[in-house]
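dumping the sequnces here before i forget
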Amino acid sequence: MNKSKKIIIAGGGGYIGSHAVARLKEFGWQPVIVDNFSRGNHDIAERLGVEIFAGELSDETFLDQIFSKEQYCAVMHFAASSYVGESVTDPARYYRNNVGSTLALLSAMLRHNVDKLIFSSTCATYGIPKILPIDETTPQSPVSPYGWSKLMIEQILRDYASAYNLHFVAFRYFNAAGALPEQKIGERHSPETHLIPLAIASAYNGLELKVFGRDYPTDDGTCIRDYAHVIDIADAHRVGLEYLLSGGKSDFFNIGTGKGHSVQQVIDTVEQLSGRKVNFVNASRREGDPAELVADAGKINSVLGWKPQYHKIEDIIQSAIDWHLADGFCN
Ligand SMILES: NC(=O)c1ccc[n+]([C@@H]2O[C@H](COP(=O)([O-])OP(=O)(O)OC[C@H]3O[C@@H](n4cnc5c(N)ncnc54)[C@H](O)[C@@H]3O)[C@@H](O)[C@H]2O)c1
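..and the predicted 3d for all of it:
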């Protein structure tokens, strides 16, 4: 039996991957980071105190060098391009980087007899759902190349599982938020497109925040999303890893809190916690933005025993504010 505690974290220099590294270390695992730092942060990765392989996932020679060094028990695959809007204007980048790099990673895993993968999928694979909350049986019909690229990978994982005995867990995240300021890690995307960091930057730096759509069929007219704390998402990966290593069958799980918050509620919470005004302006709807995306997270709870520890949006946003102030994002 493979007793190795070494795990490859592809995309471990990014937002969610870096928190997964921190969480895994805390539980005695030995993660190593593989990242090309196209969108990640080398300084944040260095703070995690783990081995870093800087390079490109689609480079099979590079991957062979890494896989030859150690026997890894599994791979967690966070690496992707993940801007919905950019995927519409540059779909080639999304299919090449997301689908292409995943195929290269899977080939390297097969060559080196690593048969367990935990993959970052997304609620964007559901598209615009007709029924809420969204469970794993909700039909998947993406409305962007980003969502399609992730759905294609889901199908590839199914096929590799039946043909090559790959064992996988694919997590469909809704919205990741928050940070671990005490460990000096948090969200630093460039460009930033996520609401919470943008609202915080607006409160502290006066940057204009666009609210896309005020005429949705929600209580205040703004879109509703399901925000899970990034460390809860990281912990789901640890639990998913233990599940696969103890013989759990390949499967797909939503990760969310089951509770939605509107854009306006997030803005109000940032204002209340910071004591500052968010400089928001109303803008027209973005194409393909569903009014409401909220997870039914019952399956991950019943099969993996995972449930979020952070229930209050205030606590999630406070951790993000603390991080951004410490990181110097805000003055
Ligand atoms: N952040 C969210 O709310 C959210 C929601 C749903 C799904 N996801 C998915 O979760 C994963 C992690 O999201 P994130 O917000 O941490 O993203 P991120 O951009 O912060 O991290 C991705 C990391 O992957 C690296 N990377 C990308 N392509 C690579 C390649 N070809 N080779 C090597 N490294 C590469 C980047 O440099 C970056 O460090 C992504 O797959 C994303 O699609 C994120």
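The pocket of nicotinamide-adenine-dinucleotide is lined by residues 11, 13-17, 35-40, 56-58, 78-80, 82, 97, 101, 120, 122, 173, 175-176, 189 (CB under 6 Å).
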